[in-house]
Amino acid sequence: MHTRRYRLAGLLWTLPALIAVVGILIYPLVQNVRLSFHTWSVFAPDEVFIGLENYVRAVADPVFWTALLNNVAYAIVSLIFQIGVALALAAVLDQFIARRFQGFFRSVYFLPATLSITITSVLFTFIYHPEVGILNSALDFLGLEGLKHVWLGDPTTAMGAVIAMSQWQWTGYNAILLLVAIQRIPREYYEASSLDGAGRIRQFFTITVPLSRDMITVLSITVISNAFLVFNEVTVMTNGGPNNSTQVLGTLIYQNAFRNDDMGYAAALGTVVLIVTVVIGIVQVILSGRKQVTY
After folding, report:
1. What PROSITE patterns does this protein's entry cite (predicted)?
2. What is the pLDDT of residue 294?
């Protein structure tokens, strides 16, 4: 009797959260998937069922493939810097910097993440300015005039410039989170490996990386999800240009929904983003579970 009462009480306590999750997350997702099979305009309330036509249209749309490849590139570069480089920075901070100085470096690492994405995007727009930007001015000062470029105005460099800005902002933040995971590893493991003759690099790959796997997995899922949800950076810096070279799925959804008033096609693109992020998350969790380290 008491067990049933406790269960009922627990259900009542969690009910508000469940209602919020269903109303704010689950219901909009279901509605978005349903709408992706229709054509609909805010000026014409009637929805017309068209089946998979929106998805067929996406497959045939070269801008969609450009946006998807840009998101994939964003995810790959972000994994390299925000996980790989961040883990190396965290390991260096833990192994080579005295504890009394680590607070200063943590603040330096964390500082870019305190800036809003909009402010950072505007800042880097000025940095990349072809005439008065710091980047071209620095190249000119170093005698590398041949490397000066219209960074955001050239389709071959615009997306890379946007991606580089994001790495500057978030690599240090992830390094701090990874440092927390590293400092939870018992020091005895490093001491024992040192007695066995293991150097710092070997310790990094045999102790630090395996025993930080949980944090690495969580951050990897977050990084990849954010890479497929990127929007503000591109909107502020290039707005998808030049010539659609920096379109990502987020900007493409926005432009089709609120500029072209093509809600059905925008919903189909949103469903693609949902499927990609969910599949990647599941794969990462499965792979991480298979490689769990016991100690």
Report:
1. ABC_TM1
2. 41
**Rounded distance, CA 251 to CA 255, Å?**
6
Backbone dihedral angles phi then psi of residue 132, each to the nearest 5 degrees:
-115, 5
22: its two tokens: 């269903």
Residue written as tokens 């500029």?
259
Convert the pLDDT of each residue in 54-68 to its tens digit.
999 999 999 999 999
Assess contact for 170 and 82: CB atoms under 8 A.
yes
Between 74 and 28, name the one with better pLDDT. 74
Alpha helices, H only, 184-262:
187-195, 200-203, 209-211, 213-229, 232-237, 249-254
- Which residues are registered as beta bridge partners of 41? 44
* Average pLDDT value for the chain: 88
Q: How wide is the angle at C-alpha 239 spanned by C-alphas 27 and 61, nearest 5°?
A: 70
Question: Model-level pTM?
Answer: 0.87
Calpha distance 208→189 (Å, rounded): 10
Single-letter residue type at 44: A
Residue located via tokens 């990897």: 220
CA 83 from centre of chain: 11
**Torsions phi, psi of 262, nearest 5?**
-115, 75
Domain 57-290 maps to which CATH number in 1.10.3720.10, 3.90.1150.10, 3.30.565.10, 1.20.1070.10? 1.10.3720.10
Residue pointed to by tokens 């003759």: 197
Amino acid at 62: P
The whole-angstrom separation of Cα 266 and Cα 251 is 10
Per-domain residue ranges for the chain?
Answer: 57-290
